[in-house]
Each structure stands twice: as structure tokens, then as C-alpha cells.
Amino acid sequence: MDILIYSLILLLRLYILILILRIIIEMVQSFSRQWRPQRWFSICAEPIFVVTDPPVKALRKLIPPVQLGGVGIDVSILVLFFGLQLIMMVLGRILVV
Questions:
Q1: Minimal CA–CA distance to 26: which of 44, 50, 43, 49?
Q2: Pairwise CA distance, residues 73 & 68, whole Å
Q3: From CA 65, how far away is CA 69, in angstroms rounded?
Q4: What are phi and psi for residue 68, nearest 5 degrees?
Q5: What is the pLDDT of residues 75-89, one digit of tens each?
Q6: Mind telling me which residue stretches traverse the membrane in this protein (predicted)?
Q7: Most CB atoms closer than 10 Å: which of 4, 80, 84, 95?
């Protein structure tokens, strides 16, 4: 049972790292409008978006963007990030007990 939980925690950590990479890529794109990724970068970034898109899109349907003035901030990625952290904490507690 412990090996299964350790494996789940490892997979969640890997997924969180991929999610952080997605956040960095999206921030670079939003702050630098004229930036166009080179072909090799697009090829490397594609798997990141393919893996993280389904849960992010599902959360975007449930959670509307937060409006701050005239700007809408998408919080779905943050909700996913903190949700995964919470799941990892629960799994860690199960290992301790």
C-alpha cells in the first residue's frame, strides 16, 4: 500500500512541476505580446499543454475569471495547483498513520 501512495505522490509532484512550467510559459506570453516562440520551443511546450489542458479547461468552465477593474484573471490554474497540493498532503498523512 505504501508503494502505491509513494507512486501517487511522485506522479502528483511531477504533474505540479509540469503545471509550473505551463504557468511560466503563459506568463511570458502574456507579459511579452510580441514574443513568438521558435519552432523547437513550440514542439517542447506542446506536451506540457496537452497534459495540463483537460483539468484546466474543466475548471475554467466551473470557475469564472476574477474581474479586477477591466482585467479578468484566470484562477483555474491556481485552484488546480492548490488542489493537487492538498491531495499530496492528504496522501502524506495517510502514510504517517
A1: 49
A2: 7
A3: 12
A4: -120, 100
A5: 999 999 999 999 999
A6: 6-25, 71-96
A7: 80
Coil, strand or helix: which one is 21? helix
Q: By CB neighbour count within 10 A (0-12 exposed, 13-18 middle, 19+ buried), where does 2 fall?
A: exposed
pTM for the whole structure? 0.87
Which residues share a beta bridge with 82? none
**Single-letter residue type at 91:** L
Amino acid at site 15 = Y
What DSSP character marks residue 69? T
Residue identified by cell 479586477 is: 68
Total residues found in the chain within this entry: 97
Q: What is the largest CA-CA distance in the chain?
A: 52
